Amino acid sequence: MDIYPAIDLRNGHCVRLTQGDYDRETVFDDDPAAVAKRWVDQGARKMHVVDLDGARDGVRANADAVAAIVEAIDIPVQLGGGVRDAAEASRLIDMGVDRVIIGTAAIEAPDEVQKAVEDVGADHVIVGIDARDGMVQTRGWLETSEVTAIDLARQMVELGVRRFIYTDTSRDGTLTHPNFDAVAELSDNVRYPIIVAGGIASIDDLVGLAKLGVEGAISGMAIYSGALDLKSAIETIDEMTTAG
């Protein structure tokens, strides 16, 4: 299981939001590229980046910061936030992003998701399923749809999607542990790789997710607050994988 450090961008800064609330923001660093290099130095093999302004407004507003991160590190970067069509997905892949994460468009413009899969390949497309109480949220979690997480995943599989990120938005940034039951239910219904975000607070949480067989786990608040040591966490999961 891969552990992805999260770099959330707003106004060019590296920030964290509590439960996705734009009014509950903590700025951690003014140099996102330096933060990315710091996590690589601690053993990160993949990076998770979100343009929060883009997620909310539908227009990517942190393009310079994203480009700086991609230029600064030599590990794969997956990017979400404001990727609403296949053309933008292609542009991001061309600039060096490894995988694009599509969230809102999966609900509002599923044809664009299918086209993105066709244009850049399923290996480079992830659908982000952000849910509260099982219902998918969109537009930076400001709107709640009438579609369940499992139904959306099934619909996306029909369009060729082969990888998902699942976030329980009620737990994101709270250090209250992942929603293991929801993750297990999604895994049982979707036989494709799942990366989990939201609520991770400890190495025990990561071990629990690894036992569920998920492909990856995204850590934000835990590593920024010091609740979780990234280097130790990566070593622990690597040892667990080798032993298992």
UniProtKB/TrEMBL annotation:
UniProt keyword annotation of Transmembrane helix present: no
Pathway: Amino-acid biosynthesis; L-histidine biosynthesis; L-histidine from 5-phospho-alpha-D-ribose 1-diphosphate: step 4/9
GO cellular component, one term: cytoplasm
Lineage: Bacteria, Bacillati, Chloroflexota, Dehalococcoidia, SAR202 cluster
Coiled coil: none
Organism, scientific name: Candidatus Lucifugimonas marina
SUPFAM superfamilies: Ribulose-phoshate binding barrel
GO BP term, pick one: L-histidine biosynthetic process
Reactions this protein catalyses: 1-(5-phospho-beta-D-ribosyl)-5-[(5-phospho-beta-D-ribosylamino)methylideneamino]imidazole-4-carboxamide = 5-[(5-phospho-1-deoxy-D-ribulos-1-ylimino)methylamino]-1-(5-phospho-beta-D-ribosyl)imidazole-4-carboxamide
UniProt keyword list: Amino-acid biosynthesis, Cytoplasm, Histidine biosynthesis, Isomerase
Protein name: 1-(5-phosphoribosyl)-5-[(5-phosphoribosylamino)methylideneamino] imidazole-4-carboxamide isomerase
Class of this enzyme: isomerase
